[in-house]
Structure formats: structure tokens, C-alpha cells
Design brief:
single chain; about 140 residues; alpha+beta; 6-stranded antiparallel β-sheet; 2 helices; about 30% strand
Length: about 140
């Protein structure tokens, strides 16, 4: 049986700002992440990273979580010590422009609706993106 949720052409994605720790400089910074690897041209700018807990009080039985950050250059896989290779809050206008220029449709109504939710992996509301400090940027879909 085929699930109606498996139709990749109609899937929505969530962009958010996620706090990560640069283990080299021991500084926290916020990078732009997506909830999963998307379809379309944005896919070449998404990588998958395993991140350590930011705090010993985070409730993650595995001790780390996977995130999907947006990188500056296609088909690269930098690590968290190379923070300048990831998009940050300063790049929000650029990623919005990229989405609009590449057949992605930003859903402002859905973005408004979900912006009140906590986007954490242990949240009781069922939305799972990353850590509890993620901030929603927008929700969008690919219009092929």
C-alpha cells in the first residue's frame, strides 16, 4: 500500500535557525537548517551532520541528533568547526531569494500557524526538527 504522505512533489519543508556549538572555538552560533533533505535544487546545498547535545540536561537518549544545515557551496560537507561554510541568520534574505528563484513556494499562512510551536525533538506537540531553541524561518514546498 502506498502512503499519501510519500508524494515527494507535494511535501512541505521547514527552515529554521538552530543553535550549534563550534567545538573548536567553543562558541554557540545559529545556522539555517531544514527538517530533511528536500527535492529540487536546494538538495545540493543541504548536508547532514550529527551534533552533540548543547547541554547535559537535554533529553536525547543517543547523546546527539542529526540536523540538515544549508551550506554555502553545492555538494560540500563541512563540519561544525567550519561555521563560515553554513548559512546563518544574516543569510535569511539570501535563502528566501534562492527559494523564490528556484521554483519553491513559501507558505506564509502555514509559517504563521506553526511559528508558535516549539520545534524540538522531545516536544509534546509532535513537531520534530532539532533542539528546543530552533526558531522557525518559513515553511515552503517545491513547485516543479
Amino acid at each position: 500500500m502506498i502512503s499519501p504522505f510519500d508524494n515527494l512533489s507535494q511535501q512541505s519543508y521547514i527552515l529554521s535557525l538552530e543553535t550549534v556549538l563550534n567545538s573548536f572555538t567553543h562558541n554557540y552560533c545559529k545556522i539555517i537548517v531544514i527538517d530533511r533533505v528536500p527535492v529540487g535544487p536546494l538538495a545540493s546545498l543541504v548536508t547532514t551532520l550529527s551534533t552533540p547535545k548543547l547541554s547535559p540536561f537535554q533529553n536525547n537518549p543517543f547523546g546527539h541528533s542529526c540536523i540538515h544545515p544549508i551550506v554555502r557551496f553545492p555538494n560540500t560537507s563541512p563540519n561544525l568547526n567550519q561555521i563560515d561554510q553554513f548559512l546563518t541568520s544574516h543569510d535569511i534574505p539570501s535563502i528566501i531569494s534562492f527559494l523564490r528563484s528556484n521554483q519553491y513556494v513559501i507558505d506564509t499562512d502555514m509559517t504563521t500557524m506553526i511559528s508558535g510551536f516549539s520545534l524540538s525533538s522531545g516536544s509534546s506537540n509532535g513537531i520534530s526538527v532539532g533542539n528546543a531553541h530552533a526558531q522557525t524561518i518559513c515553511m515552503f514546498h517545491f513547485s516543479s
